[in-house]
Amino acid sequence: MRKYRVHYIAGPNENLTISRQQIIEAASFQEALGRVTAWPVVETYDHASACAHNPGISLYDFEAWEAVPLEEYEA
Length: 75
Description:
By secondary structure, this protein is mainly beta. The protein contains 2 helices and 5 strands; from the N terminus they run ββαβββα. It has helices at residues 29-34, 70-74; strands at residues 2-12, 17-26, 41-43, 50-53, 61-69.
């Protein structure tokens, strides 16, 4: 199992704030983000991170959970 740094991102697009940071041990991005939200998970093309974006929010406001492997922060 990998460890992921998971945090909540919210705000208007030009002023996002990160909060509710936590470390989650899980087998995949899907599993890690699935523990904090039911929103659909999208992984980046290079598999370096994943995001679960609120599908009901406007284009101006942003609300999502993001997961990054903990190794990325330790490098």
